[in-house]
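User: quick one
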Amino acid sequence: MTEQIVIAPLIVALVAAIATLGTKYWPRLQRAVSVLGGVAYLAVVALLFQTVQAEGILTYQLSDWAAPFGISVVADSLTAFMLVLGAVVSFVALAFAATYVDEFGQRLSFHPLFHFMMVGVSGSFLTGDIFNLFVWFEVMLMSSYVLVVFYSGAEHTKAALQYVVLNLVGSAIMLLSIGGLYSVTGTLNMADLARRLADPAAYGIDPAPVLGLSVILFAVFALKAGIVPFHWWVPAAYRAAPAPVSAVLAGVVKKVGVYAIIRLYFTIFSVATFGDLGLPGFAGDSLLAFYGPILFVMAAASIFLGGFGAIDRDNLDDLLAYSSIGQVGFIILPLAIGATATGVVPGTGGTTIRTLAITAALIYTVNHGLAKGGLFLVSGAVYEAVGTIEFDDLGGLSERAPTLSVAFLVAALALVGIPPLSGFFGKFLVFDTAVQAVAVDAPGAELALVVALGGAILTIAYVTRAWNRGFWGPPSELVEDAYSPRQQVAIALLLVVAVVAVGIGFDPVFRAAEDAARAATNTGAYRDAVLFLGGGLV
Amino acid sequence: MTQYVLAVVLGLLFGVGTFLVLRRDVVRVVWGVSILSQAANVYLVTMGGLEGAVPILAEHGNGHGATPTDPLVQALVLTAIVIGFGTTAFALALTYRVYQTHGTIDTTELGGEAQ
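Assistant: Done. Structure below.
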């Protein structure tokens, strides 16, 4: 009976989307239904998280078709972890939007689109089938296209056009890769894929093409996550979208790309081993060894390009968008180390460096989701209060809007990584991963340490600059006339409080992340749970 | 033989799609994207294998014992076509909106505007 809980987040979000469509002639009711939908989503996700903690991996086979033939929906600790992050950030953003987006816009389409986007996000986290992943990506993207162009002014249509065309090309490429994978391995089910790749001879598969096809697929995920060199749509899209949507795009939708990389490459493809393929620098062992250097170069490029880009931005949203590119680099960096370094962290009794690396990436994901989500909401509140987010017209906000400024400061300090905020543990674990990798002599680990340090300094630089130009100093004319949007400030503060709470009560978050990382590296358990290998059925 | 023809056609389709995506005219870009996604669909069908009989009851069940063509890819392609249809319609509507707000659909002119 408990297996239905797996699809509950999807159904709740879908019902919320349809209910908000049906109530569009009663704006107050629509808003109430929408926020209630957010609460219900949060509740079922919490319930799912709890059930997964108690019972392990849960699966739901659509229409009861047994695993490799039907579509499987799978919830393990990693999925549950990501869902909780998504639910928290999206709920706060939704509440913010209810006071921020203008009346007409809300009535027209905002609420249904927002919930449809969450349907896509939940589906992407939950699915156990790669073609189904493509479908959920499309559901998520379709709504996000419209939300990016929501204000439909000149700059919005331009940004959306870029975003749409880029993602459409990405979708076509994803289809290519999926078709290729199906042709090579004969399955689309992720668990079945893992089973076949682990023992290719038994299924008559030549795994060599999987490497190339996975590279094509990786480009699509990197595009979704906004990692250099697939980052250039990020600033325009985040600037164009309404503030609460930018918060969800940066805090949740980007993380879907990160999740897909962890799930497919660290759980599924990692079991594939290759003979000598004659590739330079790749001695022909596990697939992850091939991705280590690639992930490292992309992470380092993201950290530096995002960091340097953020320093000389003249617009708060622009700065936050570039900072997002850099911060995703910080999420990918430990993954790069985890892909390369094998071995056990000394003195932990069996935690591998790969598990530690994924834990670090997940903790950083939480930190970035909460802090950046909060910052985008603050930016929205600043726009509402002052009427601009150009640094030239800002200045002195800390005098006129002290609460708002505190919200910005705390979230920004979380990005920098000051204790006791969540960012401290994120940065700490990234450094710890690098240090442990140095301890076991993993190649390039010292370099990773240098990159992380450089990135941390850049973060301090652009955060300080944003604070100095926007919040410090004498108030500008526009700031003098600013009013205080109390509700919005209060809602934005929720995420800031979450940042502090995660930092102070860090232990349960850490344990959940570690559980998730263990689930991500335990291919066998995932495979057996989905294919019922433990239970005697096929 | 069929596979060579299809390989050439696929190559051409991807070539034409890429060429159109790189054009200055936004409408052509949308066509290009549309052709790229259709090419991906044709590729998907090809990946399922071209040999084999009609999946269900070929020749009233008296087929020559031939293994049926894999029907899964065809189901996938149907899904992908529907999604592609929706996104293309949206992209065209967006193009019209770009024309309304900018007075041009030339990407060079769009890119040259001040931010």
